[in-house]
Amino acid sequence: MDELTQRWTKATVHPDMWVDPDEDPRSSDGPAPEGELATLQEYLRDYRATLLMKCEGLDSEQLARRSVPPSTMSLLGLLRHLAEVERDWQSWLDPEHARPSLYGDPDGDFDGAIADDAVVAEAREALAREQAATDAALSRHDHDLGAAVGAHGTVREIRVHLIEEYARHCGHADLLRECVDGRVGQ
């Protein structure tokens, strides 16, 4: 961020928000979710949406821009990393059908996040595909959140871990986006 970049938000109603409430896809005027499963599903959906919102309107160079050396973290790297995370959880839900890593090396998700439109398109497609596959795998266990799956705990624990992973990386995305163009907000 150079000295000309200013902090800004698109929101006009609440200046600490990303967008105004009537433009926020995470907002709901309806009742709060009923029950544990619905609550967990809503939190995951909203964090997934938040990550995508933090990436909207940026070109491939901006998405691939690294935070601070020696870190390889970028918004594009986060998209790729979370696609990898989604795939990992699918393997933990169904270890007999484990699938190979999307990006190879342990840091391939971040190292391969280069400023290229094709890489950005692939990352977005991979994330959507892996999220849908994770949701399908989780839905097979929705009847019992306490059911043990694989060697990694219960369905509930996996859902909470997914929420935690997105929440953590949405915090990173907040800072990365602000460094790119000064935009702030929840």
UniProtKB/TrEMBL annotation:
It comes from the Bacteria. Pfam families: MST. Residues 1-34 are annotated as: Disordered. InterPro entries: DinB/YfiT-like (IPR034660), MST-like (IPR007061). Signal peptide: none annotated. Gene3D superfamilies: dinb family like domain. This is Mini-circle protein.
